Amino acid sequence: MKKTVLLALFLLSAFVYPQQKSLRIISLNGAVTEIICELGFQQNIIATDVTSTYPSSLKVKNLGHVRNLSVESVVALKPDLVLGTEKDINPTLANNLKAAGIKTIFYKQEFSVSGTKQLIAEIAKTLNHKDYAFLQHKIDQEISKAKELTVKPKVLFIYARGAGTLMVAGKNTPMEKIIGLSGGINAITAFENFKPLTPEALLAANPDYILFFSSGMESLGGIDGVLKIDGIEKTKAGKLKNIIAMDGTLLSGFGPRLGEAIVALNTLLRENGK
């Protein structure tokens, strides 16, 4: 009887899960890639976009920026699934992929704790994987380590690609959300999305902290290069050299490491405030 039951379970698992074991997945978003890997499907990923830099153990074809993808480059890899987020995908590419008979799912990504948990649940459902609650709990466990700040500092995020490309994050951006979750206040309230940095905007914002992606600060030559930006030296952050940087994928991804990102930025704000 016992052997019969075990055989039945084996046959059932072989019937239900073979397609998951052999799935060929292309992920076109860093957070989506991280979730797929955390759910145990890293070996199924055959290609990613340029934002998929974590985990470092993932060594697959990089298709570049999602906005520049051609349907031919995707179809050539013969994927079973193409996954990404609505905010990243080019509608024309999405339609062409579907017309080519490739199953494509582009999730709505909300930049919040609940939105990240929902994204985890939706991707797990797509992969027919029911054991995903541990990822959601992990986010809560990490967030509980963050400390409340006595005074909420104003934080200005600057996206930099060398001194020639400097953009600041306004309202309704992932950067505004992560700053708020970490105990700070976004220094820009006059506009939404990203706009070019100006000395006037710096003075008007007068942030307590200036935040960069690590790669962005490096492109400027480190803190010394940042302090050479016109107007920086006149801000509170510039005078106190409260210039901080974090890994871009971690800071803005809103993936399964969201709790880790919140604690890391919260810690930097507290340590630099001493």
From TrEMBL:
It holds the Pfam family Peripla_BP_2. It comes from the Bacteria. Residues 24-274 form the Fe/B12 periplasmic-binding domain. Transmembrane segments: none annotated. InterPro entries: ABC_Transporter_SBP, ABC_transptr_periplasmic_BD. Coiled coil: none annotated. Keywords: Signal. Residues 1-18 form the signal peptide. PANTHER family: HEMIN-BINDING PERIPLASMIC PROTEIN HMUT, VITAMIN B12-BINDING PROTEIN. This is Hemin ABC transporter substrate-binding protein.
